[in-house]
Amino acid sequence: MMSNPLLEVNGLTKSFGGVVAVDKVDFHLNPGEIVAVIGPNGAGKTTLFNMITGVLPPTSGKVYFNEKEITGKQPYQIAKEGITRTFQNLQVFENMTVIENVMTGVHCRLKTGFLTSGFRLPLVRREEKQASEIAMHYLDKVGIADLAHEDSKVLPYGNQRLLEIARAAASSPKLILLDEPMAGLNPQESAQLVQVIKQMRGEGMSFLFVEHDMETVMGISDRIVVIDYGKKIAEGTPAEIYENEKVIAAYLGTDDEEAI
């Protein structure tokens, strides 16, 4: 029996003045899937992510999550529905320790918040302990639990990437969006992050990610969506995308373009 899609994107479009950055893009993601969105620089991938997560309102089109429309909702509302993300540029709180960074991802799951935490009520103390335990769990998952009490700003770049993944996962989302997670990582760090993503998929999380590292894309994705000049030009398994002539032309250029 086929399950309903976890995420559905229908005709999503974004125009900036006269420029159409994303043009009627459709795709879906099933529970437990890892789906990549690829395309040349400037194809509209990050704009697409920003519309899904509420950072940008779409010009037209719809986004559904768990069969509920989330089009145009604010990012915090979408996060409460069960979608979190990382960004192309690192978004680490440098004035916090590693574990404190991850605990910020846990707080949306708790009854108390930052305002009430200053009162040191019994419920607050219990939830702080719970948040710390959850944060340590995900730091252990990504392999940097030994750095929990270090200042986040002193971490090497690769470990800061892993910190972002741990923080995104700490809210127990159903779907994590990763914007170029392998950027700036060496081969060993990339391989470690791939294993982290696979482990988290095993815990029931799904992933939608933008990535330029094609070896990673082909090795980890269940399906791939290809965008060029804001339009979806292909969708399929890694094997299907690898042999798709439109995709080859978008990345390598056609014979006509090479002759110019």
From TrEMBL:
Specify the ABC transporter domain's residue ranges.
Answer: 7-254
- Keyword Cytoplasm listed: no
User: Under the cellular component aspect of Gene Ontology, which terms does the record hold?
Assistant: plasma membrane
Q: Which organism is it from?
A: Siminovitchia terrae (Bacillus terrae)
Q: What is the lineage of its organism?
A: Bacteria, Bacillati, Bacillota, Bacilli, Bacillales
Superkingdom as given in the UniProt entry: Bacteria
Q: Which GO terms describe its biological process?
A: D-alanine transmembrane transport; L-alanine transport; L-isoleucine import across plasma membrane; L-valine import across plasma membrane
Keywords in alphabetical order: ATP-binding, Nucleotide-binding, Transport
The question of whether Nucleotide-binding is a record keyword is answered with: yes
CDD domains xref list: ABC_Mj1267_LivG_branched
According to the record, the signal peptide region is: none
Q: Which Gene3D superfamilies match?
A: P-loop containing nucleotide triphosphate hydrolases
- GO terms of molecular function: ATP binding; ATP hydrolysis activity; L-isoleucine transmembrane transporter activity; L-phenylalanine transmembrane transporter activity; L-valine transmembrane transporter activity
The protein's name is ABC transporter ATP-binding protein
